[in-house]
Amino acid sequence: MTTLDPAMAPRAPVPATEGHVMAVASGKGGVGKTWFAITLSHALSKRGLNVLLFDGDLGLANIDIQLGLMPDRDLGSVVAGKLTLNQAATRFSAGGFDVVAGRSGSGSLANIPPSRLQLVADDLLLMARGYDRVILDLGAGVEKAVRQLARTASTILVVTSDEPTALTDAYAFIKITAIERPDTDIRVVVNAANSTREGERTYSTLLKACQGFLRIAPPLAGVVRRDTRVRESIRNQTPLLTRYPNSEAALDVEALAERLLAD
Ligand SMILES: Nc1ncnc2c1ncn2[C@@H]1O[C@H](COP(=O)(O)OP(=O)(O)OP(=O)(O)O)[C@@H](O)[C@H]1O
Ligand SMILES: [Mg+2]
User: Fold this and answer.
1) Is 8 inside any structural domain?
2) What pLDDT, in 10s, does the model give residues 135-161?
3) CATH (domain of 121)
4) Where would I find the CobQ/CobB/MinD/ParA nucleotide binding domain in this sequence (predicted)?
5) 73 is in which domain, residue-wise?
6) Whose C-alpha lies nearest to ligand 1, atom 12?
7) How many domains would you assign to the chain?
8) Is residue 20 within 8 Å of 134, Cβ to Cβ?
9) Ligand 1 pocket list (CB less than 6 A)
10) Which pTM value belongs to this model?
11) Is the residue at 157 inside a domain?
12) Which pLDDT score is estimated for 14?
């Protein structure tokens, strides 16, 4: 017997993890978003997830540089209408994940009109269905284009260091997000901490501001310690988890990835 009532029709179950977009944001530039987005993608793919890393830094895209990739396809070609987003993905085999590079032969994508950016964002959400997780590396700042892309994410990992300016900017990003989209799952990553303990103290400073002024309590996703191996592996364009799997920063990101999956 067939049923005509759409409410009664069987629906394909959508796995809870399918197409889950996690954005990596910061406010302040240079706190380690891109490096962290890459290393988190690697850690998640090591745990058997099918991961897409998307370079959403429209001004200074540089995932390809950190990975030593020379992609012949990128977001620029998508924006120019030459490729679909799916066609723009490149396999990064050393990390076991796919990448949509942001670099554009025609220069920066910073001035892309909002309507066009929205098409990219909509396509990203469609493409995300083919992955267990999409990690979206955002540009610094809180301007409109950054927020527009961030809206594709159900979870936003806000990266900060212990510098007062990084903390203030992380707070500003959290505030705007909490006002614009109160249901966003915001979590904090303290990067380049001198110790786990110090990183936790940095988090608690930010937490107090969020509780006091915004009445929200974004949880700590994790602390990643400052580690000279990070710069070294970037310089060698080799992933940290491959080159120095037992370094402090590698262990911290692995543990953070593990906790993200446990939630
Ligand atoms: N845990 C860490 N320990 C030591 N150095 C780090 C750590 N994380 C990041 N760095 C250093 O910080 C530099 C900047 O990192 P990255 O380019 O990822 O920052 P970003 O936030 O993406 O910057 P932008 O805002 O310009 O996009 C890296 O080149 C790296 O050397
Ligand atoms: Mg970056």
Assistant:
1) no
2) 999 999 999 999 999 999 999 999 999
3) 3.40.50.300
4) 23-239
5) 20-262
6) 32
7) 1
8) yes
9) 26, 29-35, 57, 60, 140, 191-192, 224, 226-227, 230-231, 234, 249
10) 0.93
11) yes
12) 41
